Amino acid sequence: MNQLTIGKLRGLQQLVNSRGVFTMLALDHRGSLRKALNPAAPTDVPFQTLVDLKVLLTRTLSPYASAVLLDPVYGAAQAVGQGALPGSVGLIVSLEASGYEGEPTARRTALIPHWDVAKARRMGASAVKLLLYYRPDAATAREQEALVESVGESCRIHDIPFLLEPLSYATDPAAPRGSPAYARVLPLLVHDTARHLVPLGVDVLKAEFPADLQYESAEDALDHCRRLSEAIEVPWVLLSAAVNYELFRRQVEIACRGGASGFLAGRAIWQEITQLPPGEWEEFASTVAAGRLRALAEIANAEARPYRPVVRVPEDWLETYGREVEPIPAALAD
Predict the structure, then answer these.
(1) Which residue pairs from 273-276 have beta carbons closer than 8 angstroms and sit at least 24 positions apart in sequence?
(2) Cα–Cα distance for residue pair 259/310, rounded to 1 Å
(3) Euclidean distance between CA atoms 178 and 162, whole angstroms
(4) Whole-prediction pTM value?
(5) What secondary structure letter does DSSP report for 72?
(6) What are the φ and ψ backbone dihedral angles of 301, each rounded to 5 degrees?
(7) DSSP per-residue letters across 32-59
(8) 231, 202 in Cβ contact below 8 A?
(9) Tens digits of residue pLDDT in 234-266
(10) Cα(306)–Cα(21) distance, rounded to whole angstroms?
(11) Stretch 22-36: mean pLDDT, rounded?
């Protein structure tokens, strides 16, 4: 299902910069953003406040990004409608509902109601993104894999790139995230997750940093990144996972040297803006956040593995293009 087609190639071309590097900005946060803006009463944050913040950040930071990831609830249509997202910058739209369903040790991802791949393609998105809580050993692993496969099939039918963002989580209360015990299994979790999920129709993997630098050296982390690059046949980019900017900058350097093709970063760039009054948002975005994004892009441009794929176009392209939109027969899909 990982066949690169003309439509997917065009979408991917819109996600990279002139060097073939992904320098992407994430602004699709919803529940976590409400909580950051008002920890005591997240549900009291007005709808328009989230829209205003996302549009401002998009308008200010998109000139320094190759693409911007937005959600369809508060950001994607609004940023396009208000002219905040330049036509030269790629648009990625998220598919998943905020948060997760099920138990903390067996999580399920739900999709945004009234939203799907077809609508994202119709509005002009360059690609779609699915955040997936996943562990190969979790009780919900097969169910989550089925969701990825379903989205991958829809992206195949609509000929649009599929970015997958798998997030691991702790299943043992004695080994929470950030603990030495979790750090020991993190590289294997990231590697095995990619190995299980990428073949299900994923075009770009938005991966966790496969090491905890509190417990592992930069050299070991670099080795883990190289192993991830060797394990998959599609490009991968680094997610920021709400770490602080200085740590993420270090991770980007290591990941790109280890074969990553860039980054898709959110809160590491702009998270402090949520502690400021709206009147100070623009100054922070245009100075601190913009400076961070430019610095990360410089690192990626110097160190990342460029992604410049090509697709062979047969002479009968006009007659044959579109035939692949037919759903894969169940017997073959199995």
Answers:
(1) 273/53, 273/57, 274/33, 274/36, 274/37, 275/36
(2) 19
(3) 29
(4) 0.93
(5) T
(6) -60, -35
(7) HHHHHH-TT-GGGS-HHHHHHHHHHHHH
(8) no
(9) 999 999 988 999 999 999 999 999 999 999 999
(10) 5
(11) 96
